[in-house]
Amino acid sequence: MRKAMMHLAQFLCHSPTYHSLAMWRHPRTARAGYDWKRPELYQHVARTCERGLFDMVFFADLNYISDTYTGSLAPALRNATQAPEHDPIPLLSFMAAVTEHIGLGATYSVSHQHPFHAARLWATLDHLTRGRAAWNVVTALNHNQAANYGEDFKPTDDRYDRAHEFIQVCRKLWESWDEDAVVMDRAAGIFADPAKVHRIEHAGRYFKSRGPLNVVRSPQNGPAILQAGTSGKGRDFAARYADAVFAIQPNLKGAKELFDDIKGAAVEAGRPASACKMLFGVQPIIGASRAEAEDRQAEHNALVPLEGGLTILSGHLDFDLSTLPLDTIMAHRTEPKLQRMQTRYRTMTGELLTLRQVAQNHGQSVGLPQMVGTPTDVADQLEAYFDAVGGDGFMLSPIYSPGAIEEFVDLVVPELQRRGRFRRAYTGTTQRDHLNQEA
Known about the structure:
This protein is of the alpha/beta class. The protein contains 15 helices and 13 strands. It has helices at residues 27-31, 39-51, 74-79, 89-96, 115-128, 143-148, 156-174, 232-241, 252-268, 290-302, 306-317, 355-365, 375-389, 404-418, 431-436; strands spanning 7-12, 56-59, 103-109, 133-138, 182-185, 190-192, 202-203, 208-209, 224-227, 244-247, 277-286, 370-373, 393-396.
């Protein structure tokens, strides 16, 4: 019986840190001449991941600096807790210019934009990347982001209801040019057939848009859609629209439940379960021996400041954790805002964690499980997680850069290929092709 194949994606941020608050100060990062502000670093990462045959490189994005922890910007700035964070969208074109196959994804919030602008932006990016664009659709995360746009932070239901209409308007706009609308008949002097370009005349609860889009139909007819929300509304959005879901689930039982829930919801929405791929976040730490890998893990984790972990966790929860004792058991807390990240409050085996432990883990990897050992050990751990949960693959997060991504590509990818768990070539050309490739 042929084994199921894994999908691999690489997590990035256009900032001094990715999931690890230790990255910017890690000795290996410093020795590598790392400059997170410059496009050359990300071009190198994209080429490396394409050499490793990854589905995509993926940028997270938060357009605020959090003051949630202690009511001050100081902890976020002191610890580089996802701040500063430059806009990743322009980087996609830089990376597309030096690659041919790998998908290029980024986060773009719908909470403070109009669908016409987003549809135009992402259709253009899909053209510039030759069909390799992927849009991670998110809503505002906390009050800081809303305040930057002079707005109040809306309840979850309202944010996702608005997001549903947002993506529906985008789809109408992407469909407003028929596939054969551009005829370029030079002899007749006709560039596009007017009968094949349509107004959309959308008038809904949140948006109005007349259309048509002034960008021709793109290679994927709009980008591939990614999603990362785990609330009930977020899961429903993913089931209806997402080509892939990025999930952080350190607990295997929770990962399996989420996998089954979203796959089942996709079927209920009239889509094949395979249409929505689940990519679970992990942080590989590789050494020539298990002892060397464990030393690298200890070195990395010791560089993570507790204040930084508390700051980034407070921002993600939109709750000031300085008001709680460090030894409180997080799973026992009843505050409404602390319920949305319950999966981070336990270890892989289900052990309950204190606030100190959760914050430290959050600073190390934002809750991603660390998979530590030799290339063979890491491949074993990936396989065990993959087979226990049901697939479809992983979003990888490095502990230093450059260096950690190259190690995975050069050492772990060949081991997964030897086991028949990962592709040996791209068989398609677009981001959706990669996500749908099964062998």
